[in-house]
Amino acid sequence: MFAQIKEDIACVFDRDPAARTWFEVVTTYPGLHALQAHRFAHWIWRRNFKWLARVLSTISRLLTGIEIHPGAKIGRRFFIDHGMGVVIGETAEIGDDCTIYHGVTLGGTSWDPGKRHPTLCDGVVIGAGAKVLGPIIVGKNSRVGSNAVVVKDVPDSASVVGVPGRMVTKPHPEEEKRQEMANKMGFDSYGSTKDMPDPVANAVNRMLDHMHLVDERQEQMCKALKSMGAAMEDFKLPELDSCKLDSGEKDDSTEEKLNAS
After folding, report:
1. pLDDT digit string (tens) for 9-67?
2. What are the Cα distances from residue 21, in Å, to 8, 77, 132?
3. Does the N-terminal peptide bond of residue 135 adopt cis geometry, omega within 30 degrees of 0?
4. Which of 3, 61, 75, 155 suits 172 as a labelling partner, its CA being 20 to 30 A distant?
5. Are 76 and 7 in contact (CB under 8 A)?
6. CA nearest 104: which of 116, 90, 88?
7. Cα Rg of the chain (Å, integer)
8. The pTM of the whole model exceeds 0.70
9. Which residue, among 75, 1, 65, 73, has the nearest Cα to 33 in the 3D structure?
10. Is 147 within 8 Å of 130 (Cβ atoms)?
11. Across the chain, which distance is largest between two alpha carbons, in Å?
12. For residue range 26-42, what is the model confidence (pLDDT) as tens digits?
């Protein structure tokens, strides 16, 4: 349980540049408060104490402005930024590493019992004020623009905007390569899309393309050298730790490997 709480706090630093210290995040982020309250209410809900779970979720809503039904299923590293006005229905399902902003509704379109709320796959980002309605599926790493109204399934790695929601980008192999490199670097490339004529985003895309090409060539060179009998040590590249970079700390193990080579 404590490991999951620590993970929920750590993901705030990855997605909100305004976060400075753990104490600040723990004491001032309503999205984190609402998420922890939901995890406890959901645990009670699953043990069939329905009324008590609803009471806890209501208290959480009064304190945070975020309404999450205790029956909703939420994965790891879920981040609600700002949070005011967020509504998540009973049968909603949210995967890992998802992010939603204030005013988002994951709602139903029917009064019939059963599955009536959306399912968000891993890595989905939903912009402020968006409405995702009905038992639809929003595919992995997809993005829903601010104030969009989505009532149909969204494929993986797609972007949806407007009322009603329409796709402005479809999954593309080049974008998947960029996302793969971005994930490897520990960089969230949300916003780095062709639909946003941003020179900074364009520069980031070009850097990711270049790094992916360099990475592939290095892999080919290593394989060729090994086939010729060269002795090469295999070690995993270290992940970028934003906390260490910000504080100026060095990764000793990485420095030793570089010095040895």
Report:
1. 888 888 888 888 999 999 999 999 999 999 999 999 999 999 999 999 999 999 999 99
2. 14, 18, 33
3. no
4. 75
5. yes
6. 88
7. 21
8. no
9. 65
10. yes
11. 69
12. 999 999 999 999 999 99
- Tokens linked to 13: 């630093």
DSSP string of the chain, one letter each residue: -HHHHHHHHHHHHHH-TT---HHHHHHH-HHHHHHHHHHHHHHHHHTT-HHHHHHHHHHHHHHHS-EE-TT-EE-SS-EESS-TT-EE-TT-EE-TT-EE-TT-EEE-S--SSS--S-EE-TT-EE-TT-EEESS-EE-TT-EE-TT-EE-S-B-TT-EEETTTTEEEE---HHHHHHHHHHHHHT---TT-STTS--HHHHHHHHHHHHHHHHHHHHHHHHHHHHHTT------PPPPP-HHHHHHT---HHHHHHHHH-
For residue 35, give the amino acid letter. Answer: L
Tokens of 80: 């609600």
- Give the position of tokens 């969204």: 154
